[in-house]
Amino acid sequence: MNFWGYRRPDGRVGIRNKVLILPASVCAADTARLVSSQVKETVTFHNQNGCSQVPSDQQLTMDVMAGFAANPNIYGTIVISLGCENCQMDLVVDAIRQRTNKPLRQFIIQDCGGTIATMEQAVRAAREMVEEASLLKRESFPISELILGTECGGSDMTSGLASNPLIGNTCDRLVDQGGTAVLSETTEFIGAEHILARRGRTPEIRDRIYDIVHRYEDALKLVGEDPRLGNPSPGNKAGGLTTLEEKSLGCIHKGGHRPVEEVYDYGKQMEAGKGLVIMDTPGNDPSSVAGMVAGGAQIVVFSTGRGTPTGNPVAPVIKITANPITYGKMKDNIDVDASVLLEHPEQMDAVADALLREIVEVADGKLTKSEALGFYEMAIARVCNYV
Fold it and tell me: What is the CATH number assigned to the segment(s) 18-134?
């Protein structure tokens, strides 16, 4: 199975062809937003971080910024910084250059003469870059070039019964054709980590699965908290989920049945053709999706029982529900109705084939509903409070 995409100079293959207006910190976020609003085919996000962070949190922010710029859906990047933040321009540029050799321009507000002068220069640079990007033509590539992120949010009892198993079944198909599928949301492995760990290809991978789960729990315990106090959410409980362990048993279905080949830290670069992998992310949807996209996922499939509009500025997000009531209420936001599986689980293979075709169509250029409506929720994981 093939799709139509864009070969980048670093060898990766993208399914979108956008220019990223990247704010290096919260102090440059509005300037980046205004620049992006002036140039079609650009994307940006509101970066709430980039300054006043401890080193571990700053590294998470740097990894997401560099990863977004390196994501193959991005043709090139315009970086805008204030000038005095912790994520200094040279650090951001170096982090990007370590991942990719795609086009890159940079503007520092304090050096350019303020926001208006910066916007004038950055808008011109962005327009030039968009013109260059528009000359590229899509080419045919095997589906093995895809890195598919998986996410679940606003889960209810239909998630674990139908939509998550559907995603897992589809991931198996992708992996069997040489692609990469990413299982995320470490907090929602809790209570089911022993089941997931059995699927590690090596003892080291099995130990790593236990490690990321225990590390997450221990980090919360250090500040006197327990993940079970905030998870499941009120919406999860209203949808029939009673415990975090119950939610986790549904969550891990998204990974299908293939062996786990690798465990990646949050936002780190992943490889195409790797098979089933895990990324250590929070359960929070926008920050989890951001980590996978920073790692190179070109597309994300997202199951929801209660319904959500969540998207991402860099990668298309395909929303799936198996709750017919939710689909009826939120069909403007949800791409795939999988409710047939509740009464006819024997149709799983046919529905998974259809979902894989939908993934290929989106890779070919079909807009998801979150893209068409402009929903690009965004967050970056962090460990500590601001300093």
Answer: 3.40.50
